[in-house]
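Memo to structure team: turn this sequence into structure tokens by end of day. - J.P.
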Amino acid sequence: MLPSILKIFQYNFNRSNYDLAFFELGKIYFYDNGPIERKAVVIGFSGSKYRDCFGNNLDYNFFDLKSVLGILTGRFGIDKYEIVQEENQFFSKSCSSAIWVNHQKLAVCGKISESAMEFYELKKELYIAEIYLDILKTLSKKNIRYQRLPQHPAVERDMALILSESVSAQDVIEKINNRNELISNIEIVDVYQGKQIPPGKKSLAIRITYRSLDRTLKDDEVDKIESDLKNILLSELSCQIRE
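Reply from structure team:
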């Protein structure tokens, strides 16, 4: 699959699209004491991922690949893996690795070599990872559950709290996260200390998303849940609610 995604980058580079993040699902075939077919996902980065506050471009690098691999293995309950330097015909010798879990190769990753860049006429540095999904499935320690996509709109409500600086955002989330089945997401929007906030205190803004899988929520039922959540936070965290 590596040649396939390199051709995708080549196509985009030829059209002056350089800041890219792609993935592709497919099958790979190789021979090891017999023909083997394996399902895989290939991830690729090139160019800049974003600009900082000073207008400087921050480019993708090998650590972005490691970050994605860490998130992916974590989602499947894999908490320990080993990154081993390993040569690959597509990768630079100084930046070529394999990911091993329980003596099984889960992925290969690295920076595309100069010879491969020349062959595919690539004009920007590329960082690629190839992850073997069948291996990932066998190593997974989680039972994955699926639910149907929501067909009814969500309701978002913001809440601003004044609380002790010793209380973490995670403390707030844990207090309300499982209080009602209609709460589908809790997001930290802003944390502020400064003018108009008493010493030793901080302002924490959260956004709560409510959603039902089988009906459209009414304002009055969301109002009731929101009121209950506020009472819980007031009593258990001794905070203030900013209106």
